[in-house]
Structure formats: C-alpha cells, structure tokens
Write a structure and sequence with these properties.
about 270 residues, alpha/beta, eight-stranded mixed sheet, globular
Length: about 270
C-alpha cells in the first residue's frame, strides 16, 4: 500500500505507541486523525505536529473507545473532514487489574467497537475503498504475563478476534486487511503501571517477574514498534497475520490451521 494521501485513524494517539504510529504515518505521506481521551496531551501533540507538517494533514478528536455513540460520532466527523478512512489502528489500551471490567472494556471492547465501526466506512460493499486495520495486542497476547492476568486475557482476545475478522473480511470481500501487532515491553507510560499496586492490585507482589524480564532483555523503543506497524500497513499480502517484535528480532507467528495441527500429548479418557 502506498501511504501518500491515505487517511489514517489512530486511537490512543496522544502518547506512547500511538504517537509513534501517527508520526511514521505522516512521514510516509498520510493524513492522520488522532483520537484520545486526554484532550490536553492530544491538543499539545497537534500543535507540535503542525510545526512539522501542513496543519490540514492532522485533526485531533477527544473520544472514548468504550462508548459506541462517542466513537461512532467521531468517525463520522473524520469521514466528513477527510472524505474516507483507509487505515485504522486500534491502539488505545490500559493496565488495571483492580478495575478489570474497565480493562476489558478498553483493551478488547474498544478493539471490537473500533473494528466494527471502521469497517462500516471502509468495506467495499458500503462504498468504501478497502484498506487495512491494525489491532495492537502484545507478547502477552501469545503467552501469559502473570502480573496482569486480565491484561493478558484482553490481548489474547485481540489476537483471536482479529484473526477471525480477517477471515470474515476475506470471505465477504470487504477489501480490508486486518492484522495484529504483538510487541515486547515498550518504553511508554503504560510500562510504569506494572510497578504500581494501584494498577496491579493483588498481583503487585509478582512485579519482580516482569522486572527480571526487562532487566535481562531490555525494552523496546516506540519507534522500533512503529517500523513494524508500517510493515503490516504496507504489505498487502498480510491479512490475519500477527507480527511479534522482541529485543532480538521481528517475526510473524505461525498459527496452526486447526486443533489437529496443535502440538499434542495423547490423554486416555478411559
């Protein structure tokens, strides 16, 4: 996919990974709509971007990904302003094991809602131009992170939902690819919440597990993850693919085709 003059939307765009995604999209010629709950950070970022790029190439919108009415209305405003949506990134996410319902609502519910609403504007049967949706999961979406069971569950959900929707899109000829980004620990503000009892609750005592992993292997810079994000956006052969980025390499996950292909140990049911 050639990104020049394409219209992209990024949730959780005001900082961290979202900001890096916005910046790399702009550098590659896209117009970008930024969505975030933090209006002050979003407005500040918009002003900063205007100094480097033409002001009409970006817009900032304050919206809550857990609200259907809020997000739907925002996407309608974006389409009215830019005329279309070609790239959609569900990036908004939190870690909060105490208020686990909120974590599920943002990390999984927000991805489901964002995907469904974006498809209404993007899929060809509705007059859209097709495109690509990138859903941000985590290494925790492929294996357990003991200090954050709910976060782990939501990120596994993002992987499963995205793969299923990629198959739906292909079968129904939506013209929209759906891919998954699974990064290792990244140097963002989200990382600090794993060292906070307020966010990890009864699992706070297990923080040493994550700290040991980070000390032994390091953490990723956000711009490294943004380069992987760009691969999933631009490579039109990728649909339903999960790209892992760890400190040593980036690689695509090889998923089994079905239960019969899973590594197995026979069990007697006698």
């Amino acid at each position: 996919m050639d990104l020049k003059d394409k219209v992209a939307v990024v949730t959780g765009a005001a900082q961290g990974l979202g900001r890096s995604f916005v910046e790399i999209l702009l550098k590659n010629g896209s117009k970008v709509a930024l969505i975030d709950m933090n209006s002050s950070l979003g407005t500040e970022l918009k002003k900063s971007l205007d100094q480097e790029h033409e002001p009409d190439r970006t817009r900032f919108y304050t919206a809550d990904v857990t609200s259907d009415e809020d997000l739907k209305g925002t996407l309608e405003k974006i389409v009215k302003t830019f005329g279309r949506i070609d790239i959609f990134c569900n990036n908004a996410g939190i870690i909060n094991e105490k208020h686990w319902e909120k974590t599920i609502a943002v990390n999984l519910g927000g991805v489901v809602r964002g995907t469904y609403l974006a498809l209404e504007h993007m899929k060809k049967e509705n007059g859209g131009n097709g495109g690509v949706i990138i859903n941000v999961s985590s290494m925790a979406g492929l294996g357990p992170l003991p200090i954050t069971p709910i976060y782990t569950a939501t990120k596994h959900g993002v992987v499963g939902f995205s793969r299923a929707m990629a198959a739906v899109s292909k079968m129904a000829n939506y013209g929209v690819r759906i891919n998954i980004l699974c990064p290792w620990f990244v140097k963002t503000n989200l990382l600090s919440t794993m060292s906070s009892e307020e966010h990890t609750g009864s699992f706070f005592s297990l923080r040493g597990f994550a700290e040991t992993l980070m000390q032994s292997r390091g953490c990723l810079e956000a711009d490294v993850v943004a380069k992987a994000f760009l691969v999933l956006v631009k490579d039109e052969s990728k649909n339903g693919d999960a790209l892992v980025i760890d400190p040593d390499k980036a690689f695509f996950v090889s998923f089994p085709e079905g239960a019969k292909d899973l590594p197995s140990t026979p069990v007697s049911l006698e």
